[in-house]
Amino acid sequence: MKKGDIAEGIIERVEFPNKGILTVDGERLVVKNTIPGQTVRVLVTKRRKGKSEGRVVEVLKKAPQEREEGVCPHFTRCGGCIYQSLPYEEQLNIKEGQIKELLFSVYPEGSFLWQGLKPSPLPDRYRNKMEFSFGDEVKGGDLALGMHRRGSFYDIVTTTDCRIVHQDFCRILEATLTYFQRRNVPFYQKLLHIGYLRHLFVRRAVKTGEILVDLVTTTQTGWMEEVKSEKGESNLTEEELLDGWKEAVCALELEGKLVGVLHTQNDSLADVVQNDRTEVLYGQDYFFEELLGLRFKITPFSFFQTNSAGAEVLYETARSYIGNTKDKVVFDLYSGTGTIAQMLAAVAKQVVGVELVEEAVEAAKENAAGNGLKNCSFIAGDVGKVMDELEEKPDLIMLDPPRDGIHPKALPKIIRFGVERIVYISCKPTSLVRDLVLFKEGGYQMTKACAVDMFPYTGGIETVCLLSNRKSKPDSYVDLSINMEDYHRIKNEEK
To answer: Is residue 372 scored above 70 in pLDDT?
Structure first.
């Protein structure tokens, strides 16, 4: 097998995150975006050191468990979901198998309690945040707004009926696209670095129903002379253009409550939502969401779990794993906007959150004050550096690092605290497994673990692990005394 060859075979299994495996002439071939049981024709794209990768040219036969009804109309073209054609139970089975295989590579099966995969309470239309991209579906085609085409960095699929978001998202997307299509407003071309429209950012709280809409553009306005208003007037200004878009969004009939319409400028060369400047066109630049009885103020760029209902399952699990926190100091490292820290504060002596992003820290402080929590403190800074400066030592540690896991310089410092219990929440199992190797070497045994499906229809998964220090002293002791005469009497009676 060499690069450029065409191969056929059946997908045997899928490894995290979405690596389908088939065997061709005794060799392993990795193919992304496939489902176990599919018969596929594959083009070999890479061949290095006996490892081969390919991409699907054609699905010759669907997997037996795939369904025809209830599938998103954008599936196979949109790059957002890979399991749309599978019943939810089948998705859970695949993901659980992936997680167990990874965890067992560090802590063998039977050495810890595996508590399974907890499903999302809302498998459909569960997301509370979406970042839609402007572009075209084919080069030189009409303006599109939605998700990247599968396998493409440039092409955009207009997703007017996305199944993982509330229909309010789709209504806002469609109205925005129609408005700018009629005015021939150019999108930002990533290769040429020219254009105006970049992203449509929508957040909708599941519990409160509050909606925040943010249009992200460049500061490039040279094209404005060619744009005309609906009245046929030329020389439309940017202010007039944005005001018209705001009115179009505000006029929509939505199930939720629109609380803010924003405009953010972003001149970064990278394809990311960066906030150079944000102005409020309507309402306010924040909304509120509720989790487990607590209320959180969320700004456009605040980190907050994208699945609110799933987050409650995740955080309840983490809270149960951390165990007894009475009279204990808990460090919440990589604390984000402080959601976990605040849930622990009610049952702990003190909680200290450490987070790199200053905006998130300020949001955490504000949310803690709003929830009446006085035993929470939050520090902005790099986890590895902050730990060197803290005088107080933790009794317990909660970890929820970014996708890349714990920084290699920070991890030994965490281990050196020598706390009795560490709860590690991970959104990327491969990073988790890498870190678990070092925790194991540092004297920590994984005593139980489970997964929470925060991202149905996608390859994403959250994992929660309880790590117990084998060197730590027990909380309590039980004294036992045995009367040997009674022992021998009972044994003789049994005979």
So the answer is: yes
